[in-house]
Amino acid sequence: MMHAFLPEKKQGYCVAVVGATGAVGETMLEILAERAFPVASIIPLASSRSAGSTVEFSGRDYVVQDLASFDPKNVDIALFSAGADTALTYAPRFAEAGCYVIDNSSAWRMHDDVALVVPEVNPESLKMARKNRIIANPNCSTIQMVMALKPLHDAVPIKRVVVSTYQAVSGAGREAMTELAEQTRNLLAGQAYDNQVFPARIAFNVIPHIDVFLDNGYTKEEQKMIDETRKILAADIAVTATTVRVPVFYGHSESINITFAAPMDAETARMLLAEAEGICVVDDPSGEDYPLPSEAAGTDAVWVGRIRNDNSFKNSLHLWVVADNVRKGAALNAVQIAEFLISRS
Ligand code: A2P
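^ thats the input. predicted complex w/ adenosine-2'-5'-diphosphate below
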């Protein structure tokens, strides 16, 4: 039996959402209500820019408070989605005040003593959080990929992964979604447009550049997928990635090529994935049925299709993996971690 991280509270827990006015924060509030997380009090926090505005939780409006002047002493769990700088400064302050922080940014993910958790994949690593109380939510693209890799890797060890992503604009926040909508409208109307959030026009385009470029030629988003996958699966897997932004509002898609250490075929992979928790296989070429971001948006599952043997190389497979990047890729995964913290099984 695993002891709960937090003592049982019949009346529920005090939950803070840091970045409550953002695209992920808003979905965190929605999912907490949807899954009937035992909340005694909810505290939405953001920067001074939006302090005083309101957000909705469970049919009621709550006033957003300024993170900078907030005292976290009564908070049990804080869900952070306010960027890496905010997490670097405030997550330790919240943790020192005694609450558990689940941070959606990249700030803490690769720290040796911080758990990087996808509950269906590596829940055992959560035990690290008993000491420092900071838990990292992986990158959205990493989460859906490791969800698909784990059941296969458990059956036959994976040696190498080559992934290309097709990432929705919601992953870059609320302003990014506005930018795609406005550029699309302006271009169709023959009017001028500009780009503030993305490095190039995103409407009617694809951009092979997410986050900053590193000295090794990869982008930081690509390096996150590489490093986080190896940490979560605790395996010396060779991973390489190309991450691409596409003009889709919700739902990241990934083309994944996997090479195993021993034989693995598409039929076995399809069966293993169909049985895995949190995964839905949609893979019927005769019916032209495969996962699409338009259908994955708003759902909780990781959708897998186009499962086929890679005929160019031994022990290799192709997968097409799609998930709602704001839900399983961020807010849902964080709430699932919070559920683990209070579970007593
Ligand atoms: P704010 O509304 O005050 O800017 P998104 O990723 O959709 O852009 O959302 C980012 C979220 O993080 C917003 O809720 C934003 O609040 C919040 N945020 C950004 N910077 C800070 C900060 N320095 N302190 C607190 N919250 C912040």
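The first strand starts at residue 13 and ends at 18.
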